[in-house]
């Protein structure tokens, strides 16, 4: 469906048009005129003409009689596919002209009689496709993306970050490939791919703006040759690529849908790498021992620390009766992403978006960088205007720079976690400017008006939001890659 949704009545009209196109196709193939078919089924030719033009819906009895005379099953007339290329173009044009965006233009409604040449029809449809593409690109502003991302985060908060439908799908698939214990191996992932009709192929020339490419025609998933340390990277990328088929995704019609699909494929990959039943057993035992630790979940399933922290949030509320928070921040304290259902007061803008906001200097995601030894987890209690929270923080370094992964709970629930006895405690009064964003009086009096820094601008500030059907992907580079690697016909 076009991005601008068609009203229900318009969809009904398009259904009638599709039925009419299929009726005309099979009548013509049978070599019958309208008059000849009308005589056989007991109706006048003009009534059949109205049906073929989508202006009238036939009774079931008439439809069955028509199918009988044409020598086909009635279901053939009701299939939701255009019978030929010309009909597909005619229906696509009709759909495009039924959208509110087109109606608002006040332009004439173009009909598609047989006298309208195929070239002219192709041109009209092509123009509508380009208008739709440009409309999508224009809508995909940073502001729109932030609103969409915020809406998804709030929806996941309502669901306690748990997606039961995807859990069931992932559990069933892992059972079918025979995975029962231990970390999911690359071989298990390859077996799952094979079961779904795919072959995993590792190449060193993937376009720079893609993480993987799936050749749907030849059943191939192309992946990079190198993995993130620990082996999690390639397994997760492969599972994410398979998830689009498993979850029945269509090409995203909007940036919001693109973001939602990204969330779902990430969730699916995590649910396969850390299957619900086994992960819950592991976590419930750790809770009974008052020894919950993200690093233990990470090591038990052979995944990254961030994947383990995020997976913990999927399962903690549903199965452990714990309300939690989780976030990633860069080395400068910029919030990259976050989730909470324990009321941790994330900084946010007027729209409720948290991405790109600065964390308080006194939160664990920033104070963890002050340690000399950053290889182990860092634990801290933080007093905030919303209450006291305990957090476990792991820092690391990536290509983009240092980062911190935090996961925690409200004070009363810290008793279930390793690290609860930490003596680290800070007081944060943010968003009060006096908390950490206003310099101490002695510093102000000494330096205010006497310094002029050269600020470093973040690259993302002036960068346009990626556009395209799959935002950020260069279609030309992708198609050239596929042509290069596709098997010989």
Secondary structure layout plus pairing:
Layout: H1 8-29, H2 34-41, H3 45-52, H4 60-70, H5 74-78, H6 85-97, H7 100-103, H8 118-139, H9 142-158, H10 164-176, H11 186-195, E1 199-202, E2 213-215, E3 220-223, H12 232-246, H13 255-273, H14 276-288, H15 294-301, H16 305-320, E4 324-330, E5 335-340, H17 364-367, E6 378-384, E7 387-398, E8 401-410, E9 425-427, H18 441-447, H19 475-485
Helix pairs in contact: 1-6, 2-3, 6-8, 9-13, 10-13, 11-12, 12-13, 14-16, 15-16
- What integer value in Å does the Rg equal? 29 Å
- Under the CATH scheme, which class of the largest domain? Alpha Beta
CATH third-level topology of the largest domain: Beta-Lactamase
The biggest sheet amounts to: 6 strands, mixed
* Total domain modules: 3
Instruction: Provide the CATH superfamily of the largest domain.
Output: PAS domain
Structural class label: alpha+beta
Tertiary shape: elongated
If strands are numbered along the chain, what order do they take across the biggest sheet?
5-4-8-7-6-9
Helicity range of the residues? 40-55%
Q: What share of residues are in beta strands?
A: 5-15%
Mean of all residue-level pLDDT scores: 87
Q: List low-confidence stretches.
A: 1-9
Distance between the termini: 32 Å
Q: What count of helical segments does DSSP give?
A: 19
Compute the number of strand runs: 9
Order of helices and strands: HHHHHHHHHHHEEEHHHHHEEHEEEEHH
CATH architecture level-2 label of the largest domain? 2-Layer Sandwich
């Amino acid at each position: 469906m076009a991005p601008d949704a068609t009203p229900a009545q318009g969809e009904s009209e398009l259904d009638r048009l599709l039925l009419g196109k299929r009726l005309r196709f099979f009548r013509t193939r049978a070599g019958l005129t309208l008059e000849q078919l009308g005589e056989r089924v007991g109706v006048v030719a003009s009534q059949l003409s109205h049906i073929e033009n989508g202006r009238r819906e036939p009774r079931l009895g008439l439809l069955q009689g028509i199918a009988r005379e044409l020598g086909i099953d009635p279901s053939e007339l009701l299939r939701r596919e255009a019978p030929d290329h010309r009909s597909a173009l005619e229906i696509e044009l009709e759909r495009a002209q039924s959208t509110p965006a087109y109606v608002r233009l006040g332009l004439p409604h173009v009909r598609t009689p047989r006298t309208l040449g195929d070239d002219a029809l192709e041109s009209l449809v092509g123009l509508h496709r380009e208008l739709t593409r440009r409309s999508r690109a224009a809508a995909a502003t940073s502001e729109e993306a932030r609103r969409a991302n915020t809406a998804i985060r709030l929806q996941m908060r309502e669901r306690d970050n748990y997606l039961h439908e995807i859990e069931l799908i992932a559990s069933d698939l892992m059972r079918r490939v025979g995975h029962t214990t231990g970390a999911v191996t690359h071989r298990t992932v390859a077996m799952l791919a094979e079961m779904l009709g795919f072959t995993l192929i590792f190449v060193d020339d993937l376009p720079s703006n893609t993480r993987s490419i799936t050749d749907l025609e030849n059943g191939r998933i192309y992946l990079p040759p190198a993995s993130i340390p620990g082996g999690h990277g390639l397994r997760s990328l492969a599972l994410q690529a398979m998830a689009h088929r498993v979850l029945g995704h269509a090409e995203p019609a909007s940036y919001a849908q693109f973001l939602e699909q990204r969330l779902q494929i990430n969730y699916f990959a995590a649910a396969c790498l850390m299957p619900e039943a086994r992960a819950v057993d592991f976590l419930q035992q750790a809770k009974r021992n008052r020894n919950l630790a993200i690093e233990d979940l990470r090591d038990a399933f052979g995944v990254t620390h961030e994947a383990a922290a995020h997976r913990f949030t999927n399962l903690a509320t549903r199965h452990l009766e714990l309300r939690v928070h989780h976030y990633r921040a860069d080395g400068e304290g910029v919030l990259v992403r976050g989730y909470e259902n324990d009321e941790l007061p994330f900084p946010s803008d007027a729209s409720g978006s948290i991405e790109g906001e600065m964390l308080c200097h006194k939160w664990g995601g920033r104070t963890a960088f002050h340690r000399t030894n950053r290889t182990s987890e860092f634990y801290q209690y933080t007093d905030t205007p919303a209450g006291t929270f305990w957090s476990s923080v792991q820092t690391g370094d990536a290509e983009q720079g240092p980062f911190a992964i935090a996961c925690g709970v409200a004070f009363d629930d810290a008793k279930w976690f390793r690290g609860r006895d930490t003596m680290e405690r800070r007081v944060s009064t943010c968003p009060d400017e006096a908390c950490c964003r206003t310099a101490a009086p002695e510093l102000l009096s000494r330096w205010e008006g006497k310094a002029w820094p050269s600020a470093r601008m973040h690259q993302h500030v002036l960068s346009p939001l990626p556009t395209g059907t799959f935002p950020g992907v260069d279609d030309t580079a992708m198609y050239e890659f596929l042509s290069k690697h596709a098997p010989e016909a």
